[in-house]
Amino acid sequence: MSYPLVILLCMGLFHPTSKAVLMDKLADNKNCGDAECSYALSMATALDDFLAPDCRFINIRRGQTVYVYSKLVPEEGAGVFWSGSVYSDRYVDQMGVIGYFPATMVKETHKFQDATVKIPTTAMDFYCN
After folding, report:
1. Where is the signal peptide (predicted)?
2. Among the four residues 13, 43, 89, 120, which has the most C-beta atoms within 10 Å?
């Protein structure tokens, strides 16, 4: 085994049984607070439970706080999805995990910024590992 492959295996970046997949895009554009989508647009509260149908999405539980980082610009006939991360004392293992969820599942409780930047999505926005 080559030295670089050993390093990749140790770092967890490569695994022979890895099933990483590029999933279908949910939208061609997204609205973010900045060009890197690194700032939260808003804070929301989950209105109901949502079970993620695949690895692009996150599970949310009713009452959880959700930080919204981007809002996909829906195509005609498509659902409206936002990207964010959940935070809660009871679900600490999910903290920091960012994924999509239906916008209808949350109620925005606080907007951090009104101005947004519309940027194109990339294949990596919908990458599943």
Report:
1. 1-20
2. 43
Query: Rounded to an integer, what distance in angstroms lies between the CA atom of residue 120 and that of residue 107?
Result: 25
DSSP 122: -
What pTM was estimated for this model as a whole?
Answer: 0.76
pLDDT tens for each residue of 3-43 = 443 443 344 444 444 456 667 888 999 999 999 888 999 99
Please name each of the domains of the chain with its CATH number. 19-128 (2.30.30.40)
State both tokens at 30: 């997204």
Task: Report yes or no: 73 and 32 within 8 Å, Cβ to Cβ.
Answer: no
d(Cα 39, Cα 71) in Å, to the nearest integer?
A: 12
Q: Is the dihedral of CA 25, 122, 126, 98 positive or negative?
A: negative
Q: Which pLDDT value is given to residue 90?
A: 58
pLDDT-derived band at 126, boundaries 50, 70, 90? confident
Please state whether 80 falls in left (phi above 0), alpha (psi between -120 and 50) or beta.
Answer: beta
